[in-house]
Amino acid sequence: MSEPVRYELSDAEVPTTWYNLVPDLPVPPPPPLHPATHEPVGPDDLTPLFPMDLIAQEVSTDSFIEIPGEVLDVYRLWRATPLHRARRLEAALGTPARIYYKYEGTSPAGSHKPNTAVPQAFYNAKAGISKLTTETGAGQWGTALAFACAQFGIECEVWQVRASYDQKPYRRAMMETFGATVHPSPSAATEYGRKVLADDPDNPGSLGIAISEAVEVAAADPEVRYALGSVLNHVLLHQTVIGEEALLQMAKAGDSPDLIVGCTGGGSNFGGLAFPFLREKLAGRMAPEIRAVEPASCPTLTRGTFAYDFGDTAGMTPLMKMYTLGHDFIPDPIHAGGLRYHGMSPLISHLYDQGLITAVSKPQLECFEAGVRFARTEGIVPAPEPTHALAVAIEEALACRDTGEEKVILTALCGHGMLDMAAYTAYLEGRLVDHEYPLEQVQDALTRLPRVDV
Amino acid sequence: MSEPVRYELSDAEVPTTWYNLVPDLPVPPPPPLHPATHEPVGPDDLTPLFPMDLIAQEVSTDSFIEIPGEVLDVYRLWRATPLHRARRLEAALGTPARIYYKYEGTSPAGSHKPNTAVPQAFYNAKAGISKLTTETGAGQWGTALAFACAQFGIECEVWQVRASYDQKPYRRAMMETFGATVHPSPSAATEYGRKVLADDPDNPGSLGIAISEAVEVAAADPEVRYALGSVLNHVLLHQTVIGEEALLQMAKAGDSPDLIVGCTGGGSNFGGLAFPFLREKLAGRMAPEIRAVEPASCPTLTRGTFAYDFGDTAGMTPLMKMYTLGHDFIPDPIHAGGLRYHGMSPLISHLYDQGLITAVSKPQLECFEAGVRFARTEGIVPAPEPTHALAVAIEEALACRDTGEEKVILTALCGHGMLDMAAYTAYLEGRLVDHEYPLEQVQDALTRLPRVDV
Question: What is the CATH topology of the domain spanning A18-66+112-233?
Fold first, then answer.
């Protein structure tokens, strides 16, 4: 028989705990601050938005948190996800590198997002909440939350960034098939949306604006809470099932990664894969470089400022210390809608600041070229977001062709692109362009960072 | 831990042979006939269209045919596919029935079609062929062949039924991403297409017309061959990997099916799942009812005539004895594009004629209702085609709620619906209708059946 190309896990091997990186860090991350007092936020400040179980996870100092049985029961619809060795891509590149990808596209939403949507819906349902509101960019997160809410019998209301809402009508259709209500954002359904539309009726939207709308609706109704698809500690915590599985699967493959590479928007896919490996690295059991890849048009880590800023555009969320391009910066409408976020997870930002991870940015044409190359060899059409990581994996593998190094590369293929095909058509027809880094816009947005004396 | 919901196979358990049902049948199926002489076709008659390896499989009397290593290497990008127990659907229905589904949506095309596309591309490449032509309805088959051709470095040219080409632009984008050229059918690129367009410039197309166009181009060039995505013996042969895997997986689940239900367009998905189980039934080792489900608007088995007819509309193919609605019957443009075929696999037709399988038809609204119900419980949005089988599975499971019977139902979930979301939107917005069975059109088409004296 030929060499293995997929490494599966049995039901019994699916992780039963999430991993919390925070207690293992040499230096603790800076706390979030109350937007008015600039004091560290306490659990009570977050109760209008989140149920207590999730708030407890957000600030937990436990290394491992048990996954509830009700959540595991839903996870098992698609988990464990496969780890693939990209032998056909390797052969096409003529590289001695060994490329592995952890594929999250087999989930109901076609991405990694249900890993956190399911526990978020579960804990809210358990707390008696009747409806969740949320934002979505490319639509992956909204689809995931719509699916998860259907599993636990609660309503789901989604504000989708208008640029994606218009580009990707099938995503809205999936959310509605799972039973959710979807608004384009900015919308006339919220006070903040109406304000934005009054200033600019053609505003293409941003994740920051959509968050403001969803938060506004949740904060106004005690029966309703808000769910965030990335950025926060508890979201990254839930995503660590990816990395815990991948650790077991890499062991089955008999390989240890020299380079782990993932795309970063809010950071949850990247963190989900990387954190369990970072634990092993901090413990001296392996030594991979862990590298984040972001779009050249929204290069939060590589060009942003490490400062306290709002997670949303309206300035309603707690202040988080993170790499940011400014909370009112609106990225160009690139097709990797999930990467169009002005900030970065505070935990990922802290790791970058501490030198525990590296980061690069990639322009979108190179990413789509990598995506097409991957599709034609491995058979999976990647979502535009993970093509950023694939571009780096391919670049590294081609470098190995020259050096002869048998580098082991592990990448997060966080979703497929079947609902992003308009972007591939645009690429194949030569209609896509690389967006310039909007230096002046960012410099302008950074002048409006909140002043925080800490 | 909870009860299992997925049954996986290891790499070593993936079948290494295809199963040929023909030698195990009590009565052999009628042979295909030459369209001019009405004599049984010999291998030489088929060489303009197919390479000799596939012709040999088409007429093989061996029970098992070895899968080439090069084909297995590609299969293993996604095979074995999972068998799921639909516990969350069962709970929602309150049924004592046990529902299993064999899910082919994890393939590169999102359906079962690559199971035959890969060996077809392989055998053609091995024979030195430089290009394959084909037709596609919903686009699943064209996507599969485009992927398979990319794996073996040959060109792929696809005629897609215009109704689907217009409804499903993402499918065309996927084919192009895999490197194929795509025409809407009828097209101006062929003599037959130009003739059809001259008669009716707005012709929505049909699989029969698209087959005629693809066959015309292949037959005219010795470097080019044609690939068919269903209907023929060798296609159903390749699809038996589905049923062979499902047999092993049902054994792991410790259950034996009382009812196997699959949708039928050309018959390859249904046959692929059913044939290995039918072998076991004929050998007296199990006794499942095996039931085909077809759309009410294109009810080939349940309302058609068992007669020799052409596989295509122009009358270029051999004559095959099959259930048919007439080779120039054009089905209504329902969303289950893959089921819009005037005929039925001769092998499936023979089984139905012999009383070895049963058949029913379902209207599209009931099917979409089943699809939405399935999506909200099991998390997979089914393609419109397999919702026909799900509608029957749900109907049977609900009957068991009343009778208390613990019926074991196995269904073929042959693909996901992520590229069919416009159909779900139309359904959710109340814009879908049930099409009347076009009795007069069919009666008219049947007057043009070829006269064959056998």
Answer: Rossmann fold (3.40.50)
Q: What is the pLDDT of residue A353?
A: 98
Q: Is the pLDDT of residue A122 over 60?
A: yes
Write out the CATH class of domain B6-13+80-110+239-446. alpha beta
pTM of the shown model = 0.95
d(CA B350, CA B289): 16
State the angle between helix axes of B191-199 and B207-219 in degrees (0 to 180), rounded to the nearest 10: 150
Q: Which residue of A has its CA nearest to B71?
A: A2
Who among B1, B178, B422 is closest to A375 (CB)? B178
B175, B229 Cβ separation under 8 angstroms = no
For chain A, the average pLDDT equals 94
How many angstroms separate the CA of residue A16 from the nearest CA in chain B? 10
Nearest Cβ partner for A372 among B114, B147, B177: B177
- Residue whose token pair is 């993932």: A262
Give yes or no for residue A309 having a pLDDT over 60. Answer: yes
Residues B276/B19, Cβ–Cβ less than 8 Å: yes
Extents of the domains making up chain B: 6-13+80-110+239-446, 18-66+112-233
Give residue B453's pLDDT.
Answer: 74
Asked whether A167 and A419 are in contact (CB, 8 A), the reply is no
Residue type, position A151, single letter: Q
Chain B residues with CB under 8 Å of A1 CB are 11-12
pLDDT at residue B1 greater than cutoff 60:
no
Q: What is the pLDDT of residue A454?
A: 60
Residue A167 has pLDDT above 80, yes or no: no
Please tell me whether the interface predicted TM-score (ipTM) of this complex is above 0.90. Answer: yes
Q: Provide, rounded to the nearest whole percent, the portion of chain B with pLDDT above 90.
A: 84
pLDDT of residue B435: 84
Residue numbers in B near A380 (CB within 8 A): 108
Give the nearest chain B residue to A71 (CA atoms): B2
> Does the pLDDT at position B211 exceed 80?
yes
pLDDT value at residue A166: 86
Q: What are phi and psi of A129, to 5 degrees?
A: -70, 140
Angle at A260 between CA A255 and CA A264, to 5 degrees: 155
Give the residue on A whose Cα is nearest the Cα of B143.
A379
Q: Is A170 an 8 Å CB contact of chain B?
A: yes
